[in-house]
Structure formats: structure tokens, C-alpha cells
Amino acid sequence: AFFWLVSLLLASLIWFISVHLSDREDAKLQYGLLIFGAAVSVLLQEAFRFAYFKLLKKADEGLATISEDGRSPISLRQMAYVSGLSFGIISGVFSVINILADSIGPGIVGIHGDSPYYFITSAFLTMALVLLHTFWGVIFFDACEKRRYWCLGLVVASHLLTSGLTFLNPWYEASLVPIFIITLCTGLWAFVTAGGSYRNVLKCLSCK
Predict the structure, then answer these.
(1) Which of 19, 48, 99, 157 is the most buried (most CB within 10 A)?
(2) What are 168-194's pLDDT values in tens digits?
(3) Distance, CA of 179 to CA of 186 (rounded, Å)
(4) Model's pTM, two decimal places?
């Protein structure tokens, strides 16, 4: 979570400087800078995810050195899951905290012609982001470990695509549906990456 916060801080500084150095009266330019800031934020998040992977690898080597059997007590998959989940939770908190503050009032959502589904849609988007970060963490760590650079590229590309789709709001059908399709596909990918299979699902359902 700390690594994600640092990436957000750096992205915010870059966007803040860009805005102050540009023409604030140019609406199109400011909108472009907002998209630029979102893209930079995604790239920095993935860069810090990689930095965290390298840090955990060093820690894993140290734990293996001092353990009795020469193996680390924590597996890479466990670290990937925890890392992705923490990225997702802190991302979700920052995504929804201002929305929750606005929900206190005053006013009614949609009273000026805006969508009345703003809050429920924001909740679903936040849920998707938490899940996506968890899945991305599992895939990203496995790709780094096995040097599958095309997997890293797909993780970054799907992250950029997901962030870009949010700019279609308040046309929620055009953003929410593709994001949940990406979430489902990424979840299946992460499941297979973590060693999951149809046979394992059947065993789980039969409590074997």
C-alpha cells in the first residue's frame, strides 16, 4: 500500500506541475493533461509494483538463508496475492473516499439531470479495481519470475485500458461492461497462473 501511495504522490506532482505550466483557460488542453496524468499514474503504479517485486525477492532470499531447510516460509504466489490485494484496497479507498464524502450531502444525485446511478456505479467500479489489482499482482509477479515480458506488457496495457475506459463516464454502459469483462478475463488468467484448474474447482466444491 505504501508503494502505491508513493506512485500516486509522484503522479500527482507531475500532473500538478503540468497544469500550472500550461494554459488553464484551454479546456481541451486541461482534459488532455488529465488523461496524461492518469496514464502516468498507471505507469508509475506498475513501475512500483516491479520495484516491490524486486524488494520481496531480496527479502525472500534472506529468509531462505536463515531458515533451517533453506527455503523461504512464504511462497512467491502468497506474496503476489498479498501485494496485489494491498494495491487494490488502497486504490479502492482513494477511489471511493471522495464519493462517500459527497454522498453525505447536501443535494440529491440526479437533481440537475445527472445520472442517478452515480454512487452504485462508482461502487461497482471500485470493486472491479480492487479485484483487478489483485489479479494483476498474481500475473505480474509470475511474469517477472519467469521472465515473460509479453505478460508484463498485457498487464500494463489492460491497466491503461481500464483507466482509459473510466473517461467514458457518465456513459456508464460503455465503461462498466468492458471493465467487468476485463476483470473476468484477468481473473481467469490469474487463476490459471496461480495453478488453478477445472479439476481443482471440482475438488473444492466436493470438499475433497
Answers:
(1) 48
(2) 988 888 899 999 999 999 999 999 998
(3) 10
(4) 0.87
